[in-house]
Amino acid sequence: MPKLLKRGKRRPKIGLALAGGGPLGAIYEIGALCALEEAIAGLDCTDCEGYVGISAGAFIAAGLANGLGPRQLCAAFIENSAAAPDRFDPAELLAPAWGEYAARLRRLPGLLGRACWETVVEGRSLLGAFEQLGRALPTGLLSSEALGAQLRRQFTLPGRSDDFRDLRRRLVLVATDLDSGEAVPFGAPGWDHVPISGAAQASAALPGLFPPVEIGGRHYVDGALKKTIHASLLLDEGVDLLICLNPLVPYQASSEHGADIPRLVDGGLPLVLSQTLRSLIRSRLELGLRGYARSHPGVDILLFEPDPRDAEIFMANTFSYAKRHHLAEHAYQATRAALRQRAPRLGQQLARHGLSLRHDILHKSELRLLAPPQESPCEAALRSLRTSLATLEQRRARDLLHT
What we know:
It is built from 14 helices and 10 strands. By secondary structure, it is an alpha/beta fold. Helix 1 packs parallel to helix 2 (about 55-65) and helix 1 packs across helix 11 (about 325-340). About 45% of the residues lie in helices and about 10% in strands.
């Protein structure tokens, strides 16, 4: 029997859909989820009806479904607290794919011989020879094996599970079958025998960065190749309220309002490629949301994402982990600001599901996600020295004026 709310209403079915975006996406989503859970009375991110995660969002969704709240994920992934049992080691994101390199290198002599034969004997073009040699290139620069192993360790701790079928709530992690191009919903019926850790690893295997992940004789890559959030996997389960997080949005460059980046072309190829990728992701999401509104008109869908004028999020390296403290705090505060701005309309939508905004929390300007960074002795000494030099310079200027 469903849990009843006041006035005999049943417990609302809340779904959570998390898009990808590399380490930056995970950092943004953790900061945003902390803000949402704090500010929305009745929202428990570990007790939703269902979760769908893609790429970096797969790791966050798998943690939530295993009972790890946003603050716990923050302690493990952002703070790296030595006392946290779930401490994440960022070095595991940067392990070279040595096995992939070796496997491809072993193929090089045979490919080189075949390329020479086709060029010299069969008279084929040099382009054909280069195509042959291209098979010796690794399919990914970095290995995700250590990351998958860490997830297996975390999800097999007491009270957790690496088996979709053992979870209290529905969890779906989407990857793409490399050989068919089809999206595969790990965790859905027929796909729930795959370990959660392996599914999350496959969902985040961005082509070119990580090699495809082999599961059951098939190879899988990033789940975002087909859709941005795959929200229909939860909508078809009958959720009443769907909360979506999308970390990557195109930047609205402008010379107005003192924008930091008036013209993206001045940033060269990296900014052009970043804007292109974000525009593709966001346009697919817009199409999907319009389709969901038609196919599921009775469901409230709430989308949270960075402000398109937020240059700080746009300029951050999608695969950088070094500035996680600053960016997580930024995402937390930006989400709080968005909640305040959207409060009138958002309050009505939440009320339909027995939820409400905690305005007292939203208007506490002193609230932070992380404690302010402590100044090291060296930094304190340098700050003191700069202050002293500035004071001396001011005195010297005054003495010159009086002489």
